[in-house]
Write a structure and sequence with these properties.
By secondary structure, the protein is of the alpha/beta class. It has twelve helices and 17 strands. The radius of gyration is 22 Å and the shape is globular.
Length: about 400
């Protein structure tokens, strides 16, 4: 049967690390690929200025099939001095440079709807243009999935925001309560403090956790390589396991969820410790109620104490729910088999809808926590391209 003519072979929705990496691999197959989105938009506009990547340098490269567009290649091409810890701004520039090396077409118009008639996908754009594609790869990131605890949901956006909104910290006021105990919370508090803001971290866990505190275990040569993968995700043993998503795929769901939760639990990088020396940190505490008092927010904690702040910064992570992707038609969402909001992806990141694939954090429920990190682009894009090649372009 002759194939229906379409505007492109593969439409990729999202121009972050996973979308750009997928475009590199699929273009190398000779496919006509179109990427929709502004390159690195979430990293540029959703992450606080001044942040550093938690991942080590060796795990911060966006994968391409020939390893030609590495972080190191960008630094050489741009004259950027290598740094032990990669700044958010550097990573954004790197991603945009990466995109410019690709032969695939970039379309920065917003996708307003993706729908399917079971033979092709229809893609509606913000200016009214309608395009068609034989396949769609959703690489739209976690922006819509911000987790807002109920006690803060009624507060005005001027008084409470999520750290993934990319708000200018200079606009938050002189007193800020930072909710959370992960890297984003701790680094946000450090940045606020360094800018002269009175910041307090309020965390439910009894003691802050730090990543990589067993430094000697990473200095044992071949033994260390047996204990930890190059991706540096999770503790001993788990680090090796999550490095193999195909194995994770076959792990029973209950065990897989425990492994995933343990690998990405709230913790901070140890290089933040000295930056937090003078920051107030209240552990083992939860906010029970938040009241808007007009010119400030009153917080009531579970120990009976109160706080008066100008702003509440929620570093409370995200909860994947693909129904929150506004560009997916409701009919299409209903056709996708899901696992508690995650798409139930199989080999090649394929879903129950033929031709529809999800990559990045949305694939983590099935394939493990490697999918939450930039370093997962290598496995993802290779598997995606291999599957599409085997199953027909």
């Amino acid at each position: 049967m002759a194939q229906i003519a379409t505007d492109c072979d593969v439409a990729i929705v999202g121009a972050g690390p996973y979308g750009l990496s997928a475009a590199a691999y699929l273009s190398a197959l000779g496919l006509q690929v179109r990427v929709f989105g502004k390159p690195m938009e979430f990293w540029a506009n959703g992450m606080p200025a001044g942040m550093l990547l938690r991942s080590p340098r060796e795990a911060s490269t966006i994968a391409d099939p020939n390893a030609a567009f590495t972080l190191e290649s960008y630094e050489v091409a741009s004259g950027t001095s290598p740094a032990k810890r990669v700044a958010r701004e550097t990573f954004v520039d790197y991603g945009r440079w990466f995109q410019k090396q690709l032969p695939s077409t970039l379309d920065t118009r917003k996708v307003t709807e993706v729908s399917s008639n079971r033979s092709v996908f229809k893609i509606a754009l913000e200016d009214g243009t309608n395009l068609s594609s034989r396949r769609v790869v959703v690489a739209a990131g976690v922006g819509p999935f911000r987790r807002i605890p109920g006690q803060f949901s009624h507060l005005s956006p001027t008084r409470a925001s999520h750290c993934y909104e990319g708000r200018d910290f200079a606009e938050l006021g002189e007193r800020v309560a930072v909710i959370g105990a992960g890297q984003s919370a701790l680094e946000s508090a450090a940045i606020l403090h360094e800018r002269g803001v009175s910041a307090e971290v309020i965390a439910r866990i009894p003691v802050l956790r730090w990543i990589g505190m067993h430094k000697k275990l990473h200095e044992l040569g071949i033994i260390s390589k047996m204990l930890y993968s190059k991706h540096d995700i999770g503790p001993i043993g788990i680090s090796r396991l999550v490095a193999y998503p195909k194995i994770m795929y076959r792990v029973p769901m209950a065990a897989k969820d425990k492994i995933r939760t343990r690998a990405v639990r709230s913790a901070g990088a140890p290089w933040l410790i000295p930056r937090l020396q003078d920051v107030k940190i209240s552990t083992g505490r939860s906010v029970l109620e938040a009241r808007d008092m007009g010119d400030e927010i009153q917080l009531r904690l579970d120990d009976g104490t109160e706080r008066r702040v100008d702003h509440v910064l929620m570093c409370t992570g995200y909860s994947v729910d693909i129904s929150k992707y506004e560009f997916l038609s409701r009919e299409l969402v209903g056709q996708i088999k899901k696992l508690d909001g995650y798409p139930d992806v199989g080999p090649g990141f394929a879903t129950s809808v033929p031709g529809l694939h999800f990559v990045g954090a949305t694939a983590a429920r099935r394939l493990g926590p490697l999918m939450y990190f930039v370093t997962g682009t290598e496995f993802t894009s290779h598997e995606l391209a291999s599957w599409i090649r085997r199953n027909g372009n």
